Amino acid sequence: MAAPLSRGVLQALRAHLPASAVRESWLRRLREDDAARRQMVGRLARAPPADPSAIAFASDAVGSHLVQACLRLSVPAERAALISVLAPAAGTLARSSHGSFVLRAALELAPSAADRSALIAPLLPRCAELCATVHGAHVVHEALEHASAREREALVARLLAGPPTAAAAAAAPAAAPPPPPLVRLAAQTHGSLVAQRVLELASDAQRALAQRALLETARELAQSTPGSFVVSTALQHASAAEAQSWLARLLPHAAELAGSKAGVRALHACAEVSAHADEQVARATGLLAGAALEAAMRALIGGAGDGADGGARRARARERCDGDGADAAGDGGSGGVFDDGGEDGGARGADGVLSGPGWIAFPARALDARARRRAHELARQLGLVSQSVGEGAERRLIVRARHAQSQSPSCIQT
């Protein structure tokens, strides 16, 4: 029979072996030895103050790996016994850097709806508070994923609730009610993950409430990195009327938003849902195309080219992008790579670079193989289209916005 597995043995191992070795040896033993696993589960599935306890182990750097292993390797009856011990401490474990991983595994592997409900119940009263923490947000995210429809509705209701406390509501009875916790979470790094999950999984009625609440701060959300992801998710799951409301809130600020990566991300989401929208949408996405293309090409040109002529090529590129635009501007243009001059709708710049509204074309000789790969990757990340056209000396790399028309051969001839 296997030697007793106890907290004392764990502490001894931990004192003499690195954590990775402890995890490997114990996990292998639990996986290969059913008797050892049953013995370990039997010891852990005892409520405090019994020693050892699953709660104490779950909050420990090494012990948490053992509890997770027991949850994954045990039979349903053993798993249910472990969960019955962990459930009362779910609120505390959700805040723990180690316990949160155990709790997420328990939510995923709970053998019955009753076991999962026992884990979720302690999270409900402090749901919004947990979402504002690193580990709690991931626990609530997991709970939303695996909860029943009724439990998910209860979790979302907490995030859409009004004043956080009765005292706060009484302090300013005549003032406008504070925004629901979901709005505050949407602008936070970890809370935004929960906000996105709410938009994906909530019922139609609750999703509509979430959309209305988030719309109140649409511009601010679009300007922040976490919030821009929430805006993108909101647009993906919006009804036609809701999508038009988002566009009405964001597109008047398109020029401002196009100056940041977060804003570009939000505007790309607008463009995705407004492919058949009116002229106002087309103008706004045109602003986006210019800003996104110019930012991408500046990054590309700034690092393009290796070898003896790489420095000269980069200098010419920087001069082309940052100079007064005398060579790049068309008739009546204002300078820079994105002027709209020229009879063919494009402007010819130094080194044969052509540009027009929402597109730019580089001669292949201006970019080496690595720079061309970077161009394609940058275009993909920004939601742009990149393609190589022409042959030989007339070969060009074109990067354009998705809504911009493909250029005719006359536009890309050297």
UniProtKB/TrEMBL annotation:
Region described as Disordered: 307-347
R3H domain location: 336-403
Pumilio repeat segments: 122-157, 174-216
The UniProt record lists the keyword Protease: no
Keywords, comma-separated and alphabetical: Repeat
Transmembrane stretches, start-end: none
GO molecular function term, any single one: mRNA binding
A Gene Ontology BP annotation from the UniProt entry: post-transcriptional regulation of gene expression
PANTHER family found in the cross-reference section: MATERNAL PROTEIN PUMILIO (PTHR12537:SF12), RNA BINDING PROTEIN PUMILIO-RELATED (PTHR12537)
Amino acid composition bias (Gly residues), ranges on this chain: 330-339
PROSITE patterns found in the cross-reference section: PUM, PUM_HD, R3H
Organism domain of life: Eukaryota
Gene Ontology CC terms, in alphabetical order: cytoplasm
PUM-HD domain span: 1-274
A Pfam family matched in the record: R3H
Entry protein name: PUM-HD domain-containing protein
